[in-house]
């Protein structure tokens, strides 16, 4: 990190382009010739045009995260290892290797997907956030509620 502290449109564009393709701000700011995280946060307060550009880049980042989720879900979760037991089926003629399901890779990929789903839901909640069902299916009876309140009040007296 070189300590870039003066805002320029060129640096703002670079930051937003990298965000939009899915890179984290922490990663961007960790490179040489980029400002520190605190500097970017200051720019967001000081430069309204950069703040708007940054907000759009973050929304676009949700799309990049969505694409990453699909790629991660499509990854193979197998590994090849030497076959130490002759009774285990093998994919080669000599029985020297074995292709096995890698449950650790599955668990890691599940975590990677969940983290990206969460981030996308925060970056673009209308599209990727949880849908809330605000329809009321129950019944409210004011008369019965009033009656219960009267009964409780009478017991206290």
Protein architecture, described:
- The chain has 157 residues and is mainly α.
- It is built from seven helices and two strands, in the order H-H-H-H-E-E-H-H-H.
- Strands 1-2 form a two-stranded antiparallel ribbon.
- It starts with 8 loop residues before the first helix and ends with a helix.
The dominant shape is flat
- Assign a percent range to the helix content: 55-70%
Low-confidence stretches: none
Major beta sheet, strand line-up: 1-2
Report the β-strand fraction as a percent range. 5-15%
Helix-strand topology string? HHHHEEHHH
CA-to-CA gap between the ends? 73 Å
Average predicted confidence as pLDDT: 84
Structural class: mainly alpha
Q: DSSP helix count?
A: 7
Largest sheet: 2 strands, antiparallel
The value of Rg in angstroms is: 28 Å
- What is the number of beta strands? 2
Oligomer: single chain
Topology:
Layout: H1 9-20, H2 25-29, H3 37-46, H4 48-74, E1 78-82, E2 97-101, H5 103-123, H6 125-128, H7 142-156
Antiparallel strand pairs: 1-2
